[in-house]
Amino acid sequence: MPSFDIVSELDMHEVNNAVDQASRELGTRYDFNKVEASFELSGEVITLNAEVDFQLQQMLDILRNKLVARKIDIKSMDIGDAHTANMRARQLVNLKQGLDQPLSKKIIKLIKDAKLKVQTQVQGEQVRVTGKKRDDLQQVMALLREADLELPLQFNNFRD
Q1: Domains along the chain?
Q2: What is the pTM of this model?
Q3: Closest CA relative to residue 2, chosen from 118, 146, 124
């Protein structure tokens, strides 16, 4: 029986490249001349450091542009509040990946409400969809692409 997996993954190598490009752009921009500002990537958290919170907003725009250029969906960014203390501003951006339990249930409910002839099951941080026909699976993919979910979805491990 044909099946595929619904996942939400980030290519961390591309994220690392985007952060490096954003850091290089900070060094060349005139409005960041003689300003202590930096991007730091540690795990799935990007830390933005600057002198004032206005500069953090500009840095966030730079980061978004670099991520989009690297084909990383900005829905995966969870932007925290800016913290200002002692002439320094700092902001954390968490990168979300993997389907948590509530989002998996929401995806399954969408599929069930569409009354497609497929079976779904949660397997850790992914949802497996199985059906008798390949066309049914492609309808599920189209349905999920049109749905407005808070994370970008990828479909992999398609088997006939």
Answers
A1: 3-8+98-159 (3.30.70.860), 12-95 (3.30.70.990)
A2: 0.84
A3: 118
